[in-house]
Amino acid sequence: MASKASTIHIFTLFLICIPFSNSIDFNYPAVFNFGDSNSDTGGLVAGVGESLLPPNGQTYFRKPSGRFCDGRLIIDFLMDALELPYLNPYLDSIGAPSFKRGCDFAVAASTILPATANAISPFSFGVQVDQFIRFKSRVLDLQPKGRKADKYIPAADVFQKGLYTFDIGQNDLAGAFYSKTYDQIIASIPTILAEFEAGIKKLYDEGARNFWIHNTGPLGCLAQNIAKFGTDPSKLDELGCVITHNQASKLLNLQLYALCKKLQGQYSDANVTHVDIFSIKSNLIANYSKYGFEQPIMVCCGTGGPPLNYDSRITCGQTKVLNGTSVTVKACNDSTEYVNWDGIHYTEAANHFVASQILTGKYSDPPFADQMPFLLKLKF
């Protein structure tokens, strides 16, 4: 276990020591995040009463934190790098949460397209944007009424100076494979991105000027999709990932990149940064041992044993009777050896790796480089 930790620490120090050029100002007073489970810090749990059981959260929070992970998400590590507190979910009203340095509108299972009647999350991207607009309106309404709320709400100028982050679209593709043909899914991508563009425009019209847009990771490398759609070996690539799912991810990402370039030209007074998460995660899965991992696809918190250790009938922490036997889904002995936590989401260790790669700037367009002094103060 010590060698694993040493690998991560050495890798992080290596990143810190690389010189880069700074074309982006990272001195943001707040972050407003939109997305799905990749960046949900508790929205689904608060919004629909979804139950997350131990061992979720065990690595860092020591209990379930509303995150679909054993610990921290990519957004958490990025907030650390920006020296900002972790984002509270917009939907969480318990414990007098502070939104002074930002707010998380992301909700697990959310899509860009409007939610269907049987969707797990009703909080699609358009709803999240509308929630932000209401949030901003309420903040501006509360500010003149005294200082009592000052420690809980952002200042008025934060809405223009803040960073707006996006990680959504995965569920539009992944869910569609259960009911649509590959060609139908590909044909739907322009509609998905038109909805995304409409949301970005709404935020721009509300004063947002700093946009940070993640593309979609390699869906075909998630155990959930391999278990369902990869039973025929001919449908898998050399890494054991479902070919069609990864192709769909790539095509969505190509069109998302084109949209980001369009937005960069259209909103000349804004900063629109595209981040290639697909390349980062694909590199991790292809070269997992180089980065200190032992299992690129097999699930840490799952059941069924190799090669996937995943069963769609039961989720991490649950106890159910399967085939006449009571089964409790427990975590592996060392989650830092695994890329995948529960069949869909990454472990804290993998999220740590992805965040560290994002912070190099080389996966961003426009790239940021040369000097990133905040990297020296990383807390992870």
Structural summary, described in words:
This protein has helices at residues 2-17, 43-48, 74-81, 125-142, 158-161, 170-176, 182-205, 223-229, 243-266, 277-286, 348-358, and strands at 20-21, 31-35, 102-104, 163-167, 210-214, 271-275, 295-299, 319-322, 325-328, 338-340, 364-365, 369-370. Helix 10 (277-286) packs across helix 11. Mean pLDDT is 91; it is low at 1-23 and 371-380. The strands form 4 sheets. The chain has a 6-stranded mixed beta sheet with strand order 3-2-4-5-6-11. It is built from 11 helices and 12 strands. It starts with a helix and ends in a 10-residue tail after the last strand.
Strand/helix succession = HEEHHEHHEHHEHHEHEEEEHEE
Strand content: 5-15%
Strand order of the largest sheet: 3-2-4-5-6-11
| Poorly predicted tracts of residues | 1-23, 371-380
| Helix amount | 25-40%
> What overall geometry do the principal axes of the alpha carbons give?
globular
Quote the distance from N terminus to C terminus: 17 Å
How many beta-strand segments? 12
The tally of helices reads 11
What structural class results from the helix and strand content? alpha/beta
Radius of gyration, taken over Cα atoms and rounded to an integer in Å: 20 Å
The largest sheet is: 6 strands, mixed
Mean pLDDT: 91
